[in-house]
Amino acid sequence: MWWLLLVKMLGVVKKMDRKKEVSQALERLRAGFVSHDILYAVDHFDDVRPIISDDGYQPPEIRGKLLELHGMAMELVNFTSQEDKKRLNKVLTLAEDINWEISDCIENLENVSDVLSKLLSLGRNEDWQNPEDDDEALDED
Predict the structure, then answer these.
(1) What sign has the CA pseudo-torsion 139, 113, 97, 63?
(2) 80 and which of 32, 68, 84, 101 could share a cystine (Cβ 3.0–4.6 Å)?
(3) CA 67/CA 79 separation, integer angstroms
(4) pLDDT tens per residue, range 48-71
(5) H/E stretch holding 51
(6) Is 6 a residue whose pLDDT tops 70?
(7) Is residue 80 left, alpha or beta, with left meaning phi > 0 and alpha meaning psi from -120 to 50?
(8) Are 105 and 16 in contact (CB under 8 A)?
(9) Which is more confident, 3 or 86?
(10) What residue segments make up the domains of the chain, in order of their start?
């Protein structure tokens, strides 16, 4: 019977350790994170939306530009003479425009990722349960 008491005590100690970890994580969060940064992340994401959104059932504009670039590049490679700088310039200009849009998307999404990474670094411990897995276990604490 003494071992039952020991097991129960270990469970209490584990809960105390977990509460301490949660408390420490909350302190790190309060000291090292400004929740307003999440709103900046939303702004960065909003900057990407016009480029990648489908506007209802319409494909994103960048998709059309990429298909247009494909057609132009295919025509350039297969049917254009070496001296046709005008067509080459059109292909390169469109490619540059698309590249700028994608670069802006990448920069904005990296900013969103930075905000989320900062938040995640302040709080999670690998031993913590996923709240969706067991709501009752978290309510007990």
Answers:
(1) negative
(2) 84
(3) 18
(4) 888 877 777 777 888 889 999 999
(5) helix 36-52
(6) no
(7) beta
(8) no
(9) 86
(10) 34-122
Q: How far is CA 123 from CA 22, 27, 53, 130, in A?
A: 8, 9, 32, 13
Tell me the one-letter amino acid at 30. Answer: R
CA proximity to 65, closest of 52, 48, 81, 49: 52
Rounded distance between C-alpha atoms, residue 31 and residue 14, angstroms: 25
Query: Is residue 64 within 8 Å of 52, Cβ to Cβ?
Result: no
Residue 66 identity: L
Rounded Cα distance between 83 and 87, Å, is: 9
Q: How far apart are CA 138 and CA 121, in angstroms?
A: 21
* Strand runs labelled E in 72-114: none
Two tokens, residue 127: 């031993």
The single residue listed with the structure tokens 């031993």 is 127
- C-alpha span between 129 and 127 (Å, rounded): 6
**C-alpha to C-alpha distances, 90 to 31, 72, 94, 113, nearest whole angstrom:** 52, 8, 6, 34
- pLDDT > 60? residue 30: yes
